[in-house]
């Protein structure tokens, strides 16, 4: 059961990572390519970013809930093993991941609100920076989760 | 801006989560080895998870603040605080958590 939950958690995280990266690049100011044609990054960011907002909120909340359900197993099995092997940095990476997930869940109401409001100059900066903040949370959590999940194979 | 209380909630949540974490103000504690929740510390039940309790503390306190702030005051809030204060909270957390890497 825990393996199924871990895989579902990982798949939801992939969907969240893709959605929020599209949105994060969509609010970034990119210079046009030299020949005036769209390159990969222009096409990647050329999406209806507003349409990603509710799916991102749902995915962030559900993925965080999945992480919360997996946490007891981590606390009982993985963390003591990391402590036994003096792997302090790996524990630190996970501690940061849990803080970012919690702060991210708390940020979702403001994030959702600023994407729902009419797109004016006053709301552009909060919308952009809240999106980038959540993007940082998602990328950190994704990479930290995968490294910790595979740490026995990664370390000598 | 209507619904500005949501912004107040988000701003307060990050700060109060850090306060709950730093001062160990978990609303409750979960002991995974025995699958039990407790309000108070129990040293005889093995490993403890405080994270759920910190989130609950921050969530309830932030909701109370967001509810208590007058709507007129919430609507006058500068939108920039919505990302500046959470960013500052994250930076403060990262500075504190350097302890794992030194």
Keywords for this entry:
heterodimer; A: 156 residues; mainly alpha; elongated; B: 102 residues; two-stranded antiparallel ribbon; 4 helices; 57% helix
Describe the fold and architecture.
The complex is a heterodimer of chains A (about 160) and B (about 100). Chain A has 6 helices and no strands. With about 160 residues, chain A is an all-alpha fold. Chain A has one domain. The longest helix of chain A has about 30 residues. The relative contact order of chain A is 0.15. The mean pLDDT of chain A is about 90. Chain B has one domain. Chain B is about 55% helix and about 5% strand. Chain B has a two-stranded antiparallel ribbon with strand order 1-2. The chains are: A mainly alpha (about 160), B mainly alpha (about 100). At the A-B interface, helix 3, helix 4 and helix 5 of A face helix 1, helix 2 and helix 4 of B.
In short:
Helices cover 80% and strands 0% of the residues of chain A. Chain A has six helices and no strands. The A-B interface holds A 68, 71-73, 75-76, 79-80, 88-89, 91-93, 95-96, 98-100, 102-103, 105-114, 117, 122-123, 125-126, 129-130, 133, 136 and B 1, 3, 6-7, 9-11, 13-14, 17, 21, 30, 32-33, 35, 47, 49, 51-52, 54-55, 58-59, 62, 79-80, 82-83, 86-87, 89-90, 93-94, 97, 99-101.
Oligomer: heterodimer
Spatial shape of chain B: flat
Count of separate DSSP helical elements of chain B: 4
Radius of gyration from the alpha-carbon trace of chain A, in angstroms: 18 Å
Give unreliable regions of chain B as ranges: none
Q: Which sheet architecture does the biggest sheet of chain A show? A: none
β-sheet strand percentage of chain A: under 5%
């Amino acid at each position: 059961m825990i393996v199924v939950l871990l895989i579902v958690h990982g798949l939801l995280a992939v969907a969240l990572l893709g959605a929020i990266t599209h949105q994060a690049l969509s609010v970034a100011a990119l210079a046009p390519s030299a020949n005036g044609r769209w390159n990969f990054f222009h096409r990647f960011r050329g999406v209806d970013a507003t349409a990603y907002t509710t799916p991102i909120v749902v995915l962030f909340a559900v993925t965080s809930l999945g992480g919360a359900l997996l946490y007891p197993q981590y606390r009982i099995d993985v963390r003591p093993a990391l402590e036994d092997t003096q792997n302090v940095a790996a524990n630190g990476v996970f501690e940061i991941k849990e803080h970012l997930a919690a702060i991210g869940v708390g940020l979702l109401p403001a994030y959702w609100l600023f994407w729902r409001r009419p797109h004016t100059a006053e709301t552009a900066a909060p919308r952009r920076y809240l999106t980038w903040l959540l993007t940082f949370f998602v990328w950190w959590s994704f990479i930290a989760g995968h490294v910790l999940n595979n740490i026995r194979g990664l370390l000598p | 801006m209507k619904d500005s209380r949501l912004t107040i909630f988000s701003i307060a949540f990050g700060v109060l989560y850090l306060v709950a974490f730093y001062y160990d103000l978990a609303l409750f504690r979960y002991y995974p080895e025995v699958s039990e929740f407790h309000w108070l510390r129990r040293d005889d039940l093995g490993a403890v998870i405080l994270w759920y309790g910190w989130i609950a503390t921050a969530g309830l306190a932030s909701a109370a603040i967001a509810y208590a702030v007058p709507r007129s005051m919430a609507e006058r809030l500068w939108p920039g605080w919505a990302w500046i204060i959470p960013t500052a909270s994250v930076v403060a957390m990262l500075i504190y958590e350097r302890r794992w890497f030194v």
